[in-house]
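Researcher: I'd like a structural prediction for the single chain below. Treat it as a standalone chain; there are no partners to consider.
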Amino acid sequence: MSAAMDIPRATVSREIRAEGIGIHSGETVRVRFLPAEPGTGIVFIHAARGRRSPIPARLEHVVETHFAVTLGNGEWKIMTIEHVLAVLSMRGVTDAYVESDAEEMPIFDGSARTLARLFDEASVATLPGSIAPYVVTTPVNVVEGDKFIVALPSPTARLSYIIAYTHPVIQTQYADYPLEPSVFFSEIAPARTYGFEKDVQMLIASGLAKGGSLDNALVIGETGYINEPRFPDECVRHKALDFIGDLALIGRPVVGHFIACKAGHTLDVAFGRTFLAAYGG
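Model: Treating it as a single chain, here is the predicted structure.
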């Protein structure tokens, strides 16, 4: 995406349905993606409430960042929205309703690959109008200990990401990608969420990951992967996926070079808020 280009508004060309397991509830979740008018933005709605209690996909509606991003409006919440937002943003969908019959999005296979297949180019319809992206002209950063995110001026959108663990399997992984649809859908979207075998019981005791399994997560044991990774550096690719979805909560595309080190949803959201404060959003 170039700094000089406004982004055409677009919506889904037709109703798109999907269903899958909620990774935290363990229940089947049914989702509909519905066309919307220009200027609507991405808006989550609950099947039982219709459009009477919408939750716009914006930073001001973030209520939780523990293991996933949760949005809320005081009446209901919607969890694990980052993969949906990543796919919609990279496919250029600016306006759509996302209806769920539960309070979380399906995890599908733990990546955004299933969603990516739903949203091919024929699934997107151009709307009147366009959106001017934010263009990074002055660096913006957030730092928390040894974790940081910085946005630097760049003629195109780019993401560099570093993770570092003492774990012998992961250690340090680095990814660097232009934020272009072709790269996103082939190199980033298939990367699954990951977790450590030793943490599974803790998550279950906390009421989380009831729907987690080897079918929807890359699980890491003490000395190796429990299931086969799709990429040697799948973990950092998934971090990039999450960041792209979290960045979409800014509400407009951003052109700049993002460099993230050991970040996560909490720092992503803090960065988004810092960015909007700096750029008058």
